[in-house]
Specification:
Length: 60
């Protein structure tokens, strides 16, 4: 469950930047959102691989 916590914490940390970008048009906040979303994508990919590896170990 620590992986879930990582994702949740990352998303929550981006909340204010989302608001600043979408509601106030702050371009720097948009850059931080894009960076955070890339980190989220990378983390999701790591988790997908980890889950697949665990699944494959269990089917042996």
């Amino acid at each position: 469950m620590s992986r879930f916590s990582e994702i949740r914490d990352l998303v929550l940390s981006l909340e204010s930047d989302f608001e600043k970008f979408y509601e106030k048009g702050n371009q720097a906040a948009g850059t931080r959102v894009r960076s955070g979303m890339q980190t989220l994508k990378d983390l999701a990919q790591e988790i997908r691989k980890e889950v697949q590896d665990i699944k494959n170990e269990g089917s042996k």
